[in-house]
Amino acid sequence: MRIFIANEGYDVPPSEVTEAIQGDLSQLPQRLFALIVKHGYDQARALQSLEKGSEMFKAQTEVSGEINGQVNHKPEGLREIKIQDLKAFRKTLKLDEKPSPVQPLEIYYESQSPRL
Fold first, then answer.
1. Which segments of the chain have a pLDDT < 50?
2. Which residue of 26, 57, 85, 115 has the fewest CB atoms within a 10 Å radius of its CB?
3. In 28-115, where do the E strands start and end?
4. Tell me, what's the pLDDT at 32?
């Protein structure tokens, strides 16, 4: 949040931002709005910035599942596997197909003089 507020052009001390983001997350937008306005910035601009910030915050928490360092949920499709025997685990992995060129190699030809 500190980086977002600084990127939006607000000069607010980091200690005050840290204090504002502590506590109940449902009150976070109101606390940040009050903090920005307290430092003399325009209310309409602050609202616009907070709307943009809330979209970014929502997207970030959906991807990472983290809010203030606390994991709420794990992203779907990923799971944690504890490996006791590495050799046995490697045997369970499947090999991908061989890499293939995007264009057929036949289109390239050798020339007498190299191109520099």
1. 68
2. 115
3. 66-67, 70-71
4. 84
Whether this prediction's pTM lies above 0.70 is answered by no
Give CA–CA dist 22/14, Å, rounded.
13
What is the rounded distance in angstroms from the CA atom of residue 31 to the CA atom of residue 15?
14
Tell me the C-alpha distance between 74 and 97, whole Å: 30
Rounded to an integer, what distance in angstroms lies between the CA atom of residue 99 and that of residue 16? Answer: 53
The structure tokens listed for 35 are 């903090």
What gap in Å lies between CA 29 and CA 23, rounded to an integer? 12
Q: What pLDDT does residue 28 have? A: 79
**Distance between CA 23 and CA 19 in Å, rounded?**
9
C-alpha dihedral sign at 30, 33, 39, 40:
negative
Q: What does the pLDDT read at residue 63?
A: 60
Give the C-alpha separation, 46 to 54, whole Å. 12
pLDDT at site 114:
61
What are the CB-based long-range contacts (under 8 Å, 24+) for 76-83? none
